[in-house]
Amino acid sequence: MESHPVSGNSQIEKKFYIIGDERVFHTKAPEYFSAIMKRVGIKGTYEPFMVKPGEIEKAVREIRNLNVAGANVTIPYKEAVIPYLDELSEGATIIGSVNTIVRKGDKLKGYNTNAIGFMDALKDAGFDAAGKSVLVFGTGGAARAVVFILNWVHAKSILITGRSRDKTHSIVNQIGGEAISMSALMGRILSVNLVVNATSVSSPDEGTELAELVNRLQLSNCELVIDLNYGRPLNFWRDMAQSKGIRFMDGLSSLSHQAKRTLSLWTGVEVTPEIVVTAIQDSTSAT
Q1: What is the pLDDT of residues 197-225, one digit of tens each?
Q2: Which CATH number is 115-250 given?
Q3: Alpha-carbon span 151 to 91, nearest angstrom
C-alpha cells in the first residue's frame, strides 16, 4: 500500500519524510531517525513517502504545502529532485545530487550529506586517500558524492564503473575521475588501494552479474573495501575482501555521519556519533 504524507495533528511540531520509489518502504531511516529525535527531545515524526516515476515535481509541491521541516531523498530521485528546489548548497551544486532537503522560510534548499558522511567514514577507517588509487562502482548520487570527496582529498586516480556508460561519463565530465567499463575490469590486474561500492547492490540475489564480476576481480595493493550499504547479512563485497585478506568496512560509519549532519541541518541539534550508531544498529537488529 502506498504511503503519502498527510497533515499531522496540531501537537506535532516537526514533520520529516524520506522520498523514494517503492524501495523507500524497506529503509530503516524512519526507525532510527525517530529514535534519535526521541532520545534528544525533538518532537516530530519521520515517515516514508513513496513517489511514482515522473511525479517528483508533485511530491516536492506536497512537501511545500504540508510545511514539512525537512526531507531525505533516496534512490532514484537524488538528481531528479534538483530542478524543483529553490536553492542548492555549494556541495550539492558541484556533485549534482541531493539527499537532504531543508526548509528555510518559504524556500526549500538541497544539500548533500552523503559526501561528508563518506569523508568522515574514511577518517574512521584511518584511510588517507591522498595520493591513492581508487575504484568506484556506481553512477548515481552516492557515487557522485564519493568521487567528489576523493577529488577533494587529492586521490591520485579514480576509476568509475557502472552499467550506464552515459552516467559514468557524466560523472567524469562534471566531477572528475576516469570511466572504465565493467567488461574492461575482467582479465586484468587492477592496482588500486581502495574499492568503493556506491551501488545499491550488496547481496547476490540483488545482482547476480555484479556479484560474479566482483568475485572475479584481480586486485593488487588494495588496502580497503568499503560498501556504502549497511545491514546486508549476505554481502559479496565483504566476502571478496575477506577472501583476499583485504580490510572491509560497511556503510554504518558513513550512514551515521550523514544522519548526524542531516539532523543538524534540520533542527540545529548536534548529536554524538554514538547515539546515531546505536539507533541504526537497534533498528536493524529489530528486524
Answers
A1: 999 999 999 999 999 999 999 999 999 99
A2: 3.40.50.720
A3: 13
pLDDT exceeds 60 at position 4: no
In 3D, which of 177, 182, 230, 223 has the Cα closest to residue 202?
230
Instruction: State the burial class of residue 207 (Cβ atoms within 10 Å of its Cβ: 0-12, 13-18, 19+).
Output: middle
Q: Domain-by-domain residue ranges, the chain?
A: 14-111+253-285, 115-250
CATH architecture of 14-111+253-285: 3-Layer(aba) Sandwich (3.40)
Burial class (CB in 10 A: 0-12, 13-18, 19+), 226: buried
DSSP class of residue 239 equals: H
The answer to whether residues 92 and 113 touch, using CB atoms and an 8 Å cutoff, is: no
Residue 78 falls in the annotated catalytic set: yes
* Active-site choice (14, 15, 28, 78): 78
- Residue 105 grid coordinates: 522560510
Do the domains at 14-111+253-285 and 115-250 have one common CATH topology? yes
This prediction's pTM: 0.89
